[in-house]
Amino acid sequence: MASALETKAKEAYFDDHFELALDLYSQAIGINPKKAELYADRAQANIKLNNLPDAVADANKAIELDPSMSKAYLRKATACMKLEEYQTAKAALETGAALAPEESRFSKLIKECEERIAEENGELPKETLDVVPTNVVPVKDVSSVKDVPDPMTVAAPTKSTYRHEFYQKPEEVVVTIFAKGIPPECVKVDYGEQILSVAVNAPGKDAYHFQPRLFGKIIPDKCRYDVLSTKIEIRLAKAEPIHWTSLEFSMEVAVPQRINVSSVAANQRPSYPSSKPKRVDWDKIEAQVKKEKDEKLDGDAALNKFFRDIYQDADEDARRAMQKSFVESNGTVLSTNWKEVGVKKVEGSPPDGMELKKWEY
């Protein structure tokens, strides 16, 4: 069954039906989750769909299952280069080159990574930078390498039993994933320059996979995590002392402001910029909820409550889709389909008889 699905997935991929290929590879992985080749091939489909964090996660899983698969390192490097994570990409390429010394693409991409790293450090003249290609390598060339990358994710439940939140200090971001009674050996955490990849696979519990592209860059060697009795606590060392307005990267987020570290008191409490900026009075909230249930809402109030309920019960992908579609469409479109919203800009859709105009400042 898995081999038949794999064959159909390859046919769909070569016919440029990447969404179908992704779905078929996922079904095959559900049947045979220990086959590295499936993750490597699904990584390439994710690259074509621009699901870059998922592609990195798939490549990592393929490498975990088969560390000798050179194309998995190539897939990982391809996705990381598109994410502008050149240090991580270079490390993957060097390992892949050692496994397949006859493959010339590794050396070419290593050179490109070195040029990009030098560019970021201000070490190349502008004339040289202008000729550095922005694309990694034609996809057909990538797919011809024998091995393909992999993430470490299988399809997660629609509504996870886990939840996460974060707070930050000037020098680090602390991500907390609430999960009770998880053995440390069932938790795997990987770091990239701007990627966090978390996988929890505990017997008798739902699988949990979290692979966000982070708001800012981190220093992987200085990051660490602890598995406690009620939670997993991950400490991400910031590459720059900037204020993260969210945990995940977004094109709509304004330019971050650098934090003046010297002005922050040593005993100051860390700020919670996301879900819980203040201490929560649960008794007050419970009373408010009961009051709302007794009141009959109509008009805008009822509509706003309807959207809040959808967002509260949605999974991570649906929330991301709602935020992105609402912002990009100037409040005229609200979608929960991340696969559709995540690959393109959402255009505004004004009501009949009206037109959408952009304000100039």
Describe the structure.
By secondary structure, the chain is of the alpha+beta class. Among the domains are: 1-118, Alpha Horseshoe (Serine Threonine Protein Phosphatase 5, Tetratricopeptide repeat); 163-238, Immunoglobulin-like; 300-342, no CATH class. The chain has 13 helices and seven strands. The strands form two sheets. A four-stranded antiparallel β-sheet has the order 1-2-7-6, with no helix packed on it. α1 runs antiparallel to α2 (18-31), α3 (36-48) runs antiparallel to α4 and α3 (36-48) runs parallel beside α5. The chain starts with a helix and ends in a 20-residue tail after the last helix. Mean pLDDT is 77; it is low at 125-159, 261-267 and 274-278.
Name the features.
protein-folding chaperone binding, 3-stranded antiparallel sheet, globular, alpha+beta, Serine Threonine Protein Phosphatase 5, Tetratricopeptide repeat, 4-stranded antiparallel sheet, HSP20-like_chaperone
